[in-house]
Amino acid sequence: MKVNDLIKENYDTLDKNDIKLYSYIMQEKTDFIEKNLKEFSKKSKFNESSIVNFAKKIGLDGYSELKYLIKWEREKIVDFDENEIDYTYNDISLSMNMIKGLNLDGLFESLYNTNKIYLIYTGYIQKNLAEELKRNFLNIGIIAYTLDIKNDLELLNKNIKRDDILIAISFSGENTILLDFIKKIRKKIILVSITKLSNNKLSQISDYNLSFVSHEVYRYEENTSIRPVCQYYVIVDFLVLKYLNYKSKYKKKQENA
């Protein structure tokens, strides 16, 4: 049985920290396999007891058995698992449940009243997502500006004002160029990040982190792999839907005041 099966079977017993840990392990399988419990705890910033308890919550004896199972899965990755459709469905469901349950009223109030919104991205997929979010925002009367981390940081630094919203889109949340830039302007902006679910640096410094769960479903060679990205778009769609819901409730409240 795969770890993803165990997650699905025991989902009701897991909390958000458990899901973050699971996502981190899936992203850092090599580290998890090669490091002992103490080393992995230090690297991942999850305490040892949390890691052991997570393993027990999903029906394993502890860290060693979880490590063995992850190693076994990794060695079999070259053979496509027919259950990957179910595993990916589970990732999408987890992502939807997380964004659905997130209270974003503070962010939506800022969106309703803010001067400008900037969307900054770190790669090709992230660029497509930023353009999609920009288009959706425009359809509901919100103007947003898309910016490329490689070319537009100076322009952004020159134009961004206090209480403007910066939505940073980064899969890993660990892009050093992006992080170094944000540190310079952090105090005057409202920072929203869209990242994978993990203890990444970008999510930790954000006012709002919209995270998703994703894992590698197939690896042909060391540097050739497939990882679903539709969760990115789930986050964007739900962000817009939740904002429309907030706006509708706000108008009704004003009418009844």
From TrEMBL:
UniProt xrefs under InterPro entries: Homeodomain-like_sf (IPR009057), HTH_RpiR (IPR000281), RpiR-like (IPR047640), RpiR-like_SIS (IPR035472), SIS_dom (IPR001347), SIS_dom_sf (IPR046348), WH-like_DNA-bd_sf (IPR036388)
Database matches in SUPFAM superfamilies: Homeodomain-like, SIS domain
Keywords, comma-separated and alphabetical: DNA-binding, Transcription, Transcription regulation
UniProt cross-references to Gene3D superfamilies, sorted A to Z: Glucose-6-phosphate isomerase like protein, domain 1, Winged helix-like DNA-binding domain superfamily/Winged helix DNA-binding domain
Domain SIS: 107-249
Gene Ontology molecular-function annotations: carbohydrate derivative binding; DNA binding; DNA-binding transcription factor activity
UniProt key word Disulfide bond: no
Domain HTH rpiR-type as annotated: residue spans: 1-77
GO biological-process terms attached to the record: carbohydrate derivative metabolic process
Alphabetical list of CDD domains matching this protein: SIS_RpiR
Name of the protein: RpiR family transcriptional regulator
